Amino acid sequence: MSVKKKKAPETADYSKSGINASLKPADKIRFLSEMLRIRRFEQTSLKYYNQGKMGGFLHLYIGQEAVAVGTVSLMGKDDHVITAYRDHGHALAVGMDMNACMAELLGKGSGCSRGKGGSMHYFAPDKNYWGGHGIVAGQTPLGLGLAYALKYKGAKGCCMCFLGDGAVNQGSFHESLNLAALWKLPVIYVIENNQYSMGTSMERSSAMKNCLAERAEGYGIAWDAANGEDLYEVRAKTWNAISRAHEECLPFVLEVDTYRYYGHSVADANAKKYRSAEEIERYKTHHDPIRLWRKQLVDEKVITEEAADELDAAVKQETAAAGEFALAAEAPDPASIFEDVYWEVDNQTEAGQTGRHFFGD
Amino acid sequence: MALITYRTALNQALAEEIIRDENVVIIGEEVAQYNGAYKVTEGLWERFGDKRVVDAPISEAGFIGMGIGASMLGIRPVMELMFWSFAYVAWDQIINNAGQVRYMSGGLIHCPIVIRGPANGGTNVGATHSHTPENFIANTPGLKVVCPATAYDAKGLMKAAIRDNDPVCVMENTLLYGESWEVPEEEYVIPLGVADIKREGTDISLIAHGRAVLTALKAAEQLDAEHGIRAEVLDLRSIRPLDEEAILATVRKTHRAVLVDENKPFCGVSAQIAATIQEKAFDDLDAPVQRVCSLDAPAIYSPALEPIQLPTPERVIAKALEIC
Ligand SMILES: Cc1ncc(C[n+]2csc(CCOP(=O)(O)OP(=O)(O)O)c2C)c(N)n1
Ligand SMILES: [Mg+2]
After folding, report:
1. β-strands B231-235, B196-199: how paired?
2. Sorting pLDDT into bands at 50, 70 and 90, what band is A267?
3. Which of B59, B165, B243 sits opposite A344 (nearest CB)?
4. What is the pLDDT of residue A18?
5. CA dihedral A301, A13, A189, A213 (to 10 degrees)
6. What pLDDT sits at residue A3?
7. Could you tell me which residues come within 8 angstroms of residue A92 by beta carbon, excluding any fewer than 6 positions away?
């Protein structure tokens, strides 16, 4: 079987496209800073993971930063996001507190989920960020539901629901696509195609004509594919999807080609077996979104090499400080085990105090 | 008081809540234009229109998950499952999303959703359509589950479920939809977690939920008439939260208990009740706690056999006589 991937035309320049034309130098530098913050945050977390300071899985987003930063940079007040377990990038991009994110990794009481969610389960509803979901594609109906609620309330917003190239094969995603089209819901499914689901390449997992997003055609949903190493292109194509959602209340499927440098998770014993070291090197050298963006800004004379180095140094300090904060933070109080299970109990309402809610003693 | 069916009681509860709260929306297969597979939502679409009563395609994972997502943003969806047996295709959404998101977000999110539909055997529809998953739901902290046995309870519990800010699973019963009970005209709500003594007695406690309550009541009548045994029938109504006090109180009063449960015995609701009684009322017992559950095999189709697979008054009486 020959699988032909339809790449976005290499030559297209999205730097001047509507949504990018209005960017100020400060915006562009902020995007660089946000991508750096994600990368340095994760590098710090990797250090702690390897030192045995955190439990569970650690799915690194490193290599994919332009996707989260580019898409999230377009969010307005009624736009929401939800993603899977590779969630640190989107979390920091929406502005979640880095200290709380780091503390969550270390299972501390001051973590963003009070130490109850861990790496895969970050949440910040106050920032329109709805997680952080550990079941592959489990978030896809939820994203649909957020869009449903927006439409129900008459808000001019959308939900960007991120999923992987492996998640596209789950039934719940297909059910969601059908419902999204059927009920004209403003949900944008962003497939972050990093070419692998754990150790399985896309070719070994997905049947398709040209690309994954094209499956949307079967549902009559508009779609597009973007090169995820180019922040301008990610923004331009995402804006098209968002505008459609806002103006016409319609869904969209956007496939963004990207790449992860590390294993599926840090515990991925086969991290280097299902792809070649050369392939990884090639991406790092020629397709790194941060390196490319930095070069772009230097070329545009938006930033100097020195200033970019200074920015990076400041970000490294910030992430190191977040690490220190998390290390010093207290473990959660054992009594908190029984908190956050039922809203009614937590809020000491009559309903929460009627009948037995917890068992075992 | 009017004599109305269990179905009408549910229908009234839904209509009243749609009127009371603009965020209440009913979603499910055939709930709108078809008036509901079991006619629980009859007339609601005509009265309240497309926005409030929504027909969904056959995509339980998709639409149940969608309802959960919408509830996170403040909508109060009441999702109909044509049968609770079909919940298994949406199990991930119910257990992993509705059940866990509050906890994993450290309390930042909650899901005021109701998932409702029938969950019962006894209608010769075979094993795939006869599940009673209240024990599975009750095994998931974060979820709540109620099993009304009468029209009065169905209406009051449904209203409480819709107003509750946590995910509540309401398990109804197709064999009860057409049965009638007295229901007051005026508004009332039955809090979750409050059991109800359906018949007072002094000699033995029959503890049940859902339609098994009616089985227990029949057994109690016969025990009285034929054996002079006065059985108390306690209807749990709500499984989680559970009215443990009421369970212990009736056992302390009668010193004997038979648990009647349409669940399967292994890890069924009655297993939890039995554990609670022996832990907390051991010294009050004059005999071991007995259980009458569905016979421990998949729900059989055969109309000749299915009635005996479910708890029957005869089996309840036999167990009661063993310990009285
Ligand atoms: C229902 C389910 N099946 C399997 C897994 C285990 N698992 C976690 S991530 C993953 C691969 C998913 O790959 P993809 O969707 O491409 O996302 P990526 O990890 O590349 O971001 C698998 C198999 C899971 N978490 N949930
Ligand atoms: Mg992938």
Report:
1. antiparallel
2. confident
3. B165
4. 87
5. -150
6. 40
7. A34, A37, A38, A41, A68, A98, A101
> What is the enclosing helix (H) or strand (E) of A80?
strand A80-82
Find out whether A192 and A225 touch, Cβ atoms under 8 Å: no
Ligand 1 contact via A198 beta carbon (within 6 Å): yes
Q: Residue B151 pLDDT more than 50?
A: yes
Counting Cβ atoms within 10 Å, is residue A7 exposed (0-12), middle (13-18) or buried (19+)? exposed
DSSP bridge partners of B4: B181
Give Dmax over CA atoms of chain B in angstroms.
58
No. of helices (H) and no. of strands (E), chain B: 12, 14
> What does pLDDT average to over chain A?
94
Q: What's the average model confidence in pLDDT over A333-344? A: 93
CA A94, CA A122: separation in Å to the nearest integer? Answer: 12
| Domains of chain A by residue range | 23-327
The CA-based angle A58-A127-A195, given to 5 degrees, is 40
| Average pLDDT estimate for A212-228 | 98
Q: What is the Cα–Cα distance from B125 to B130, expressed in whole angstroms? A: 7
**Does the beta carbon of A197 sit less than 6 angstroms from any atom of ligand 1?**
yes
Instruction: Look up the pTM and report it.
Output: 0.91
- pLDDT for the residue A1: 30
Are B106 and A111 within 8 A, CB to CB?
yes
Contacts of residue A184, Cβ cutoff 8 Å, sequence gap at least 6 = A151, A248, A249, A250, A251
What 3-state DSSP class applies to B174?
coil
Measured between CA atoms, the residue of chain B closest to residue A344 is B165
Residue matched to tokens 């008036």: B35
- Enumerate residues 258 to 297 of chain A having a beta carbon within 8 A of any beta carbon in chain B: none
The Cα of A12 is separated from the nearest Cα of chain B by a number of Å equal to 37
ipTM: 0.84
Q: What is the pLDDT of residue A4?
A: 42
In angstroms, the CA B170 to CA B114 distance is 7
Contacts of B282 (CB under 8 A, 6+ apart): none
Please write the tens of the pLDDT for every residue from B113-126: 999 999 999 999 98
C-alpha A51/C-alpha A18 separation (Å) is: 46
pLDDT of A9 strictly over 80: no
Task: In whole angstroms, give the CA distance from residue B170 to residue B148.
Answer: 8
Token readout for B56 is: 């969904």
Instruction: Judge whether B60 counts as a catalytic residue.
Output: yes
Which residue, among B11, B21, B2, has the nearest Cα to B172 in the 3D structure?
B11
What is the structure's pLDDT at B143?
98
One DSSP character per residue, B194-217 reads --EEEE--SSEEEEE-TTHHHHHH
**Residue A272, pLDDT score:** 79
Contact B63 A179 (CB under 8 A): yes
Q: Which fold has domain A23-327?
A: Rossmann fold (3.40.50)
Contacts of A63 (CB under 8 A, 6+ apart): A194, A258, A259, A260, A261, A262, A283, A284, A288, A289
pLDDT for A11 equals 60
Residue A206 — left, alpha, or beta (φ > 0 → left; ψ -120 to 50 → alpha)? beta
State yes or no: pLDDT of B146 exceeds 50.
Answer: yes
